[in-house]
Write a structure and sequence with these properties.
mainly beta; 127 residues; globular
Length: 127
């Protein structure tokens, strides 16, 4: 059973930066697209970013494009989310997730294509 463990969340002022990490157990990490999602209080969970198996392709939600960067290190079984120029509206619990077997790259932007989730890490941005 694959497990994902996020870390790196915290409290930061608007305009600041945080780097989230997600460590995966098991030996199949490099076979899967990975994604980051977030859920603010009272709102649905939403897509933030996705990365291909090798890391050479990425995709971002419009709300974070140009400010967030997703990356991965397959030797360390870890995916990262570098968040810069943070805004109060970025406040949420951030989750990393792994796609289902057979998911296409185009579909990897959809929440329902992910079947393994971490426990989440809280990010709070103060104004």
């Amino acid at each position: 059973q694959v497990q994902l463990v996020e870390s790196g969340g915290g409290l930061v002022q608007a305009g600041g930066s945080l780097r989230l990490s997600c460590a995966a157990s098991g030996r199949t990490f490099s076979r899967y697209y990975m994604g980051w999602f977030r859920q603010a209080p009272g709102k649905d969970r939403e897509f933030v970013a996705a990365i291909s198996r090798s890391g050479d392709s990425t995709y971002y939600a419009d709300s974070v494009k140009g400010r967030f960067t997703i990356s991965r290190d397959n030797d360390k079984n870890t995916v990262y989310l570098q968040m810069n120029s943070l805004k109060p509206e970025d406040t949420a619990v951030y989750y990393c997730a792994r796609v289902r077997d057979g998911t296409s790259w185009y579909a990897a932007r959809g929440l329902r294509e992910y079947d393994v989730w971490g426990q989440g890490t809280q990010v709070t941005v103060s104004s």
